[in-house]
Amino acid sequence: MRGLITFTLLCFCMVNSSIAQSLRYSIALPYTGLTAYSTQQKDPLSFTGNQAALANTKQAGIGLYGERRFLLAATSYYTLATAIPSKLGNFGVQLNYSGFKNFNENKVGLAYARSLGNKVDVGVQFNYYGYRIPGYNNASTINFEAGVIMHFTDKLNGGFHVYNPVGGKLGKTGDEKLASAYKIGLGYDASENFFISGEIVKEEDKSVNVIAGVQYQFARQFFARGGFLSESTTAFFGVGAGWKNLRVDIAASYHPQLGLSPGILFISNFGDKK
User: Fold this and answer.
1) How far, in Å, CA of 171 to CA of 138, rounded?
2) What's the predicted TM-score (pTM) here?
3) How far apart are CA 234 and CA 35, in angstroms?
4) CA 208 → CA 19, 201, 211, 231, distances in Å?
5) 207 and 231 Cβ atoms separated by less than 8 Å
6) Cα angle 130-66-205, degrees, rounded to a multiple of 5
């Protein structure tokens, strides 16, 4: 009986964490969307930071990221994203999964973006989100997110992103809801090899969070990324190696109280550049 009570309390805590958007912001999730405001170093996962980044995708590709959050299997996180350029605009698919058999969250998103001239890109994504606690409760909802990126110069880009601005109630009673989030970002391609990015995020019922990061390609096949989140004083970092159309990153983040969260990223580009 005591074990059942403990498990139930754990489930409530994890549901609350879902309302706090654990699928939107894993501990190292800024790592995957870091290059959203870059014109030089985009990849198939860039649009997960701002859907408008999809508009300038020149080559189809797929990215898969997995993270063992705080070294615990029960809090593992996975995301898969595919970017597909076309003459009618560019499309993207995002799949997220977090948790284990006794509690898990999932998100399926379909994105679309296009350029409005040379200076402005826009994008939108519609999501199905749900969580599942076997034998206790399941809930789901549909919501959307959207972004705009402005190209101030060839090197300087900025924009904003909104997530779930009109609510998104969960369950039959509608007592739970997904939080809304608003973000502004800026990116600067100092050179073909060096990029720096900064974002200010305001999530519903949470303090303002500042995310900053850099990417440096110190050889044609090798590069490194790093950054931090002010909200939890968490640092994230990683190194990657590429060969032709394939790339592998070894990533990690460190939380002062909860410790290390290692991750790995695979990227493959295919087809001709548009």
Assistant:
1) 7
2) 0.86
3) 19
4) 17, 6, 10, 7
5) yes
6) 50
